[in-house]
Amino acid sequence: SYIPILATALCAVSLTRATPPNVVFILADDYGYNDIGYHNPDILTPHMDRLASEGVTLEQSYVQPVCTPTRSALMTGLYPFHLGRQGQPIATTQPSGLTLDRMLLPEYLK
I need a surface site. Which of 9, 23, 46, 60 has the fewest CB within 10 A? Predict the structure, then answer.
């Protein structure tokens, strides 16, 4: 799982600063490589372009084809098939989600 490593790195950065860093992670479903201005001048995304120029962009990321597996992997640092979330999105009426025995990214960042 990458989450403890990420949390440790962020904690190390916050120890050298007077205040903890702000972390903004934007996850956009169905967003193609050329669907943003800093890759395609025909697309106007000035706010996203500014965020990208002032921050860090992840260009070589692998995601799942639908939202539930992608989000479960992001929040836990585990492949979705380890969580039973490799299939279709969770329906809004489905009374289940991630199991409670996993630590999630926000818990590591406390």
Answer: 60
